[in-house]
TrEMBL record:
InterPro entries, A to Z: Cl-channel_core, ClC, ClC-type_chloride_channel
Keyword Lipoprotein: no
CDD domains: ClC_sycA_like
Gene3D superfamilies hit by this protein: Clc chloride channel (1.10.3080.10)
Keywords tagged on the record: Membrane, Transmembrane, Transmembrane helix
Main location class: membrane
Stretches that traverse the bilayer: 30-52, 64-83, 157-182, 194-215, 227-250, 271-291, 311-336, 348-370, 382-402
Membrane topology summary: Multi-pass membrane protein
Organism this protein belongs to: Pigmentiphaga soli
Subcellular location: Membrane
UniProt protein name: Voltage-gated chloride channel family protein
Keyword Transcription among UniProt keywords: no
Pfam families tied to this protein: Voltage_CLC
């Protein structure tokens, strides 16, 4: 019996031994490749952040430049109309290429989205920066595909490292960036074969960006209440509101974009019209703090009570900017919406306003992007590990209550959030196509 057991165990031992040896080339390959991607993405983010700071500072001193926003919008729209049609899908193009690899992302995406976002901020649009960093990271990473002669599976991982590197370096959150590159692709499912490359790319890109002398905003939460029956219930209630806010944002931005495309056929005229509407509204309402990134107001939301309608103001101006074609990201405006909404909810739920502002900061984004794990890690990286348990509750609740919507059209349904949908929604469906699929299903059931 003992001899038989040893004969059975020996092949298994040999297989395991060989498996570990085979991992060494894999680790070496992706350590080098991910580091190259990180160097490119981190440097691009550094240039972008420095340019963005300069544009914001100049606009705040010269407020009259807001009246040129329609012309700036037309210029950005014309540049994309003439040169950028292959890359106009932005983040969704990167996600689609990961799911269904077809052709290398054109390098022109980098200067177009960099210039378009800086111009949008310079003249007063309400847009973010994550989309720009992710697109630059993905496009720069994909240029290595031909050079390294990568197959489809490796190219998918390469693009994921670009997403992680861009996100990490623009926000200074390497762990969140690594997981974001894995989690954003499909609701309820992650690819662990890309975990090591994404972690390396995120960490190195953050360090590269810092090495260029770029500094990120630091937020102080202060008091964090202990985990208890009321604090958990209160954060769940707040998470429901945060999730609904994320869902409303994603839906409104997509609906406005579709409406504008139906009624304005010539693409450069869309941001021109949007810029005119934004400029008039800002001037008439004195809503200067709702344009640009809005970081000063985000910082204030951790320090003092804010106006209860601030989140609505940022919501409206960001939807108007993105829906009419200005370039940039959604995430920093979502941080603003979440932080100010959490600040407003705090007195109603008897929680410290700084703490709930911090949870709202990440939870609205978790709901809008369907990335609860990345946003929980982001909360811990930005605000300290102590907020982790309550931030996780807020982010997961927001994720569940945001429904099967999201700011990224190309995101797939990997695993439905709710049991009822799991029975009818096929895996791999783009969330942009989900509403049409469910409508057809209901019509078939009635017929």
């Amino acid at each position: 019996m003992g001899q038989s057991d040893s004969l059975e165990q020996e092949p298994m031992h040999r297989i395991r031994h060989i498996e570990q040896l085979e991992l060494l080339p894999y680790l070496g390959k992706w350590l080098v490749v991910a580091s190259i991607v990180a160097a490119l993405a981190g440097s691009a983010s550094a240039i972008f952040l420095v340019s963005l700071d300069a544009a914001t500072a100049w606009r705040e001193v010269h407020r009259w430049v807001l009246w040129l926003l329609p012309a700036a919008g037309f210029g950005v729209g014309l540049a994309y109309h003439l040169l950028g049609k292959p890359v106009d899908a932005g983040n969704n193009l990167i996600i689609d290429e990961i799911h269904d690899p077809r052709k290398i992302v054109p390098l022109r995406m980098v200067p177009l989205v960099l210039g378009g976002t800086v111009v949008s901020h310079l003249f007063g649009a309400s847009v973010g920066r994550e989309g720009t960093a992710v697109q630059m990271g993905g496009a720069l990473a994909d240029q290595l595909t031909r050079l390294l002669r990568l197959e489809h599976d490796d190219r998918r991982i390469l693009l994921m490292t670009g997403i992680s590197a861009g996100f990490s370096s623009v926000f200074g959150t390497p762990l969140a960036g690594a997981v974001f590159g894995l989690e954003v692709l499909a609701i309820g499912r992650m690819r662990y074969d890309a975990l090591f490359p994404c972690v390396v790319a995120a960490i190195v890109a953050d360090q590269v960006c810092l090495a260029w002398g770029v500094h990120h905003v630091h937020y102080a939460i202060g008091q964090i209440v202990p985990v208890g029956a009321w604090s958990v219930l209160a954060v769940v209630l707040a998470g429901i509101v945060f999730g609904l806010a994320g869902m409303a944002f994603a839906t409104a931005a997509h609906e406005l974009g579709a409406f504008v495309k139906r009624h304005i056929a010539y693409a450069p005229l869309r941001p021109l019209a949007g810029g005119a509407a934004i400029a008039v509204a800002v001037w008439a309402l004195g809503a200067w703090h709702y344009i640009g990134l809005g970081i000063p107001d985000i910082v204030r939301s951790f320090q003092e009570p804010m106006k209860p309608w601030d989140f609505l103001g940022k919501f409206a101006f960001t939807v108007a900017s993105l829906g009419t074609g200005f370039k940039g990201g959604e995430v920093t405006p979502l941080f603003y919406i979440g932080a100010t909404l959490g600040n407003a909810l705090a007195p109603l739920l008897h929680l410290p306003f700084a703490m709930l502002a911090g949870i709202g900061f990440v939870a609205v984004f978790a709901g809008a992007a369907n990335t609860p794990i990345a946003t929980t890690l982001m909360a811990m990286e930005l605000f300290g590990a102590g907020i982790g348990p309550l931030a996780a509750i807020g982010c997961i609740t927001a994720y569940l209550f945001s429904g099967h919507t999201g700011i990224y059209h190309a995101q797939r349904v990997g695993h439905s959030k709710h049991r009822r949908h799991r029975m009818v929604v096929p895996e791999g469906l783009r969330i942009a196509d989900l509403a049409h699929f469910l409508r057809q299903r209901r019509e078939q059931e009635r017929g």
